[in-house]
Task: structure prediction
Amino acid sequence: MVKIAIFASGNGSNAENIIRYFKDSEDICVSVIVSNNRNAYVHQRALECGIPSFTFTKEEFEKGDSVIRILKEHEIDFIVLAGFMLKITYPLLEAYPERIVNIHPALLPKYGGKGMYGDNVHKAVVLAKEPESGITVHYVNEHYDEGNIIFQVKCDLHPDDTHDVVAQKVHALEYEYFPRVIEKVAKRACRGYDDVIPESML
Result:
């Protein structure tokens, strides 16, 4: 059984979608939720799903030891970032090499980097009159949104789409694909594989 920790900072809709996807799985389970925001609604979602959740300060995430201690206590094998707003620092990267993945609401390397999250991304996509957007799942390294890409999928945009419409299209892709990508990559990472996953494998 591969045990996953989800890191989230806000509402937690992706986190809940992932939890429910693996609810009856014999291979993977979500064992803990970790956040930097004690008021984030993701804690309520975790409570309702019967999963323990913890909050750490920015300084605690930077040092890493208290976070890693909780992860080890829950025998975590793999970390998933789902709307997590802090940069992952070296202690966690060292403890979980090639076992931390993030989802980004655009087609990296476009519209990535510090400050590019949520509506900021969608507004930039609309402003640039992009004909398409999508999601990128990638490994996490010491730089924002620069880890090796695991999976991308696109959606077409209409010239009249507002950033809210773009967000809806991208969220639909997140809910459909992210749990399936996690299922593939978590199993492979824990067996010593790490590579790109084509859509045909999902």
Summary: The longest helix spans residues 163-190.
